[in-house]
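Folding Query — how this chain folds
Tokens — whole-number codes for backbone shape
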Amino acid sequence: LFTSRTLWTRACDPELKSPFKRESFILTMKGPDSVIQMFRVDQFFKGGLPLRHPHAPRFLRVDQSKNHDSTGIACVHRAGWAEVTGIREPIIEVDFCIRIQPPPKPDRIGFHKIRAFLAGLRDLGMKVANVTFDQFQSEDHMQLLELAHFKTAYLSVDKTDKPYVTVVNLLNEGRRKMYPYEPLRSEFFSLDHDRGKAKVDHPNVNADGSPGSKDVADAVVGAIFDCVSGPEKAGQDSAQGIEDIRVDGSEMGKAGQEKIKDFDSHLSRRTDRIAYLRGWVEGIWIDVDKRAFC
């Protein structure tokens, strides 16, 4: 599918850093852990907005695990424009991608904690344009997020090779930016591309003997494809949408820190019937049934 390590390296900006504290981590269903605990809030947000291109809408993707596989999450946005053969095309920057590993059986990945993480990002100032899922057991997640006023959609990266080919074109044209992330690089260079069937899949076993996977790759490709082809793509050339603005202020404000504390406490108080998920939705503070997120 893609073999140029030179182009891949050029697309990885060493000045960009992962906002996550680890390359991957285990997320339990029953334990007190949460995704936001692994996220460097002060590195990603400043002054109540994302540090990089603060007003650009973000496109999020959750590639939900099957059985006992890992789950991939990715977030991207439009970071500018480039001329490609006389046509103005978007430059896509990957805000983050992460591999979430399953806990030992019989425990499973806590998907309610992933939904809470998405709500927390919006609560901290991220403008979320859309959240996409693959088909596997995603309807319940989409409905719960829609009840909290998120826009969601089903987007498959398995039915055709178009999403992957789109990302390969971005790489060839120098229009994808992100930080170096080994799980994504390893998955991407191990993929099998059946051009006759127009399908992209991972091998059962990689060359080094490890199990094949593409959870992170699917998440990044799905988010990028949604960003370049989704309903929010029009009108993103305004200064508000893509200009590289740095917001004044050295640290996340006290209010933002309090939100994180409240956010984690909602995850831990599992005996409560109602959690007050403090999400700002169209100017109104809303109460959300804890079962929807926690």
